[in-house]
User: Which sequence fits this backbone?
């Protein structure tokens, strides 16, 4: 177990097998190379940096919210993530919120190879995808 200090959650004990390596970092946060997921609620997680106590992103699995969502990974990213089996890929969209509501970044998803514990943020060249796609309103 690793003890990791975080700003939002205090000190956490995290199994080494849960640490994801982001060899390229995340654009704008390239110094942070190691992250782990903290489940928040249904289909919502925190992607917490293990090497930066202040850095955490809210993420969601986009396919359940946007059934038509798709993108094509670049060959370069496939190499970085060492993809042998596409079934091992897990995709998240970073969520941001402001006074107008919550949005998902579908243009630059977080892609994780769960078999190799490797992750990266992928910038799609598909201009139909938005950096700020409003989240659908959940009816209760």
Assistant:
């Amino acid at each position: 177990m690793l003890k990791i200090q975080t700003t939002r959650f205090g000190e956490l004990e995290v199994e080494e097998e849960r640490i994801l390596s982001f060899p390229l970092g995340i654009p704008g946060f390239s110094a942070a190379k190691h992250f782990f997921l903290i489940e928040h609620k249904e289909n919502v997680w925190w992607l917490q940096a293990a090497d930066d106590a202040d850095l955490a992103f809210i993420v969601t699995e986009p396919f359940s919210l946007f059934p038509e969502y798709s993108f094509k990974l670049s060959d370069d990213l496939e190499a970085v993530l060492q993809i042998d089996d596409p079934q091992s890929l897990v995709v998240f969209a970073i969520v941001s919120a402001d006074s107008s509501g919550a949005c998902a970044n579908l243009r630059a998803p977080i892609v994780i190879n769960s078999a190799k514990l490797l992750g990266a943020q992928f910038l799609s060249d598909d201009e139909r995808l938005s950096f700020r796609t409003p989240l659908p309103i959940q009816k209760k």
Q: What stands out?
A: The chain is about 5% helix and 40% strand.
